[in-house]
Specification:
Blueprint lengths: L1 E2 L10 H14 L1 E4 L6 H12 L22 E4 L13 H6 L16 E10 L7 E5 H6 L3 H7 L3 E4 L1 H6 L7 H5 L4 E4 L1 E3 L6 E3 L5 E4 L4 H15 L5 E4 L6 E5 L3 E5 L10 E8 L3
Parallel strand pairs: 1-2
Antiparallel strand pairs: 2-12, 3-14, 4-12, 4-14, 5-11, 5-13, 6-7, 6-10, 8-9
The structure holds N-oxalylglycine (OGA) and manganese (II) ion.
């Protein structure tokens, strides 16, 4: 849903923040137009909204963040000098992992909860983000599949998901990214609504042979990303999109990223009850 008008830099009273959280429970994705945050203001809003911020990103093990704070994730195609990264750049290859269907920080425990992605520079060509509603996808499962999923848990690892694209972390980097185990079906404690919890990071089902588990996960991702479950966001500068990582999956769509600048800043909170 589109929310507002709000200037989120100035929203701090409890009633308004509760209303936005209730909106997140209902819609799972909210779009706020014309937000004027600088980095510090975006971090401050995220803290007001949901407390603890995710800072142990996969990118953090590759080197220093261009934006100067590991909690402010640089979702751009720019190098440290602000120039367009070229194909073959290691960080560019790493960033391409966002083109796979995923939820943010599922490879952590506690995992990512809300992601808040702000568009600073939008290219003149389409460079959209798709989001899939994993509650609607769960609701559409048949009973036999729901029974199969009862109690299942999956191991999530960013080293695994990047490896599927040919990106290699060194042994030392992998030690910093051990991954995490999460249930395949989650329930929102406030609404009681269930959702699938999937991602390119999901490497295998605990207690199952690896191929069987991977095939099940692939099957579920295919199911959950059918067009009727997917919203496609065409960015305008100043858009802040908040999504609930426990109820959705998302991916960036391809564009000519060696010729057009695209700069977005993301803050993700952790699911601490
Ligand atoms: C993210 C992400 C996709 C995109 O910011 O977490 O996956 O379209 N972004 O940039
Ligand atoms: Mn993401």
């Amino acid at each position: 849903a589109e929310a507002g008008p709000f200037d989120l830099r100035r929203e701090s009273d409890r009633a308004t923040l509760d209303e936005i959280r209730a909106g997140m429970d209902e819609y799972a994705v909210l779009v706020f137009r014309d937000q004027l945050f600088d980095g510090g203001e975006q971090l401050a809003f995220a803290r007001r909204f949901d407390g603890t911020l995710h800072a142990k990103t996969g990118a953090a093990v590759l080197g220093k963040n261009r934006l100067g704070d590991e909690a402010l994730t640089d979702i751009s195609n720019l190098d440290e000098g602000g120039q367009l990264m070229q194909a073959g750049d290691r960080r560019h290859a790493y960033a391409l992992g966002n083109r796979l269907w995923h939820t943010d920080a599922s490879f952590q425990d506690p995992p990512g909860r809300y992601s808040m992605l702000l568009a600073k520079v939008v290219p003149p060509v389409a460079a959209d983000t798709e989001l899939a509603d994993l509650r609607a996808a769960y609701d559409a499962l048949d009973d036999a599949t729901r029974r199969t999923l009862e109690g299942l848990r999956a191991h999530h690892s960013i080293a695994y998901s990047r490896m599927t694209l040919g990106f290699e972390f060194s042994d030392e980097e992998q030690r910093q990214l051990p991954g995490a185990v999460h249930p395949v079906v989650r329930t929102n404690p406030r609404t009681g609504r269930r959702s699938l919890y999937l991602a390119s990071h999901a490497a295998h089902i605990i207690g199952w042979p690896v191929p069987e588990g991977r095939l099940l996960l692939r099957e579920l991702v295919e199911h959950a990303t059918q067009p009727q479950f997917v919203y496609r966001h065409a960015w305008r500068e100043g858009d802040l999109v908040i999504w609930d990582n426990l109820a959705t999956m998302h991916r960036g769509r391809p564009f000519d990223d060696t010729h057009h600048r695209r700069e977005l800043h993301r803050v993700t909170t952790l699911d601490i009850a």
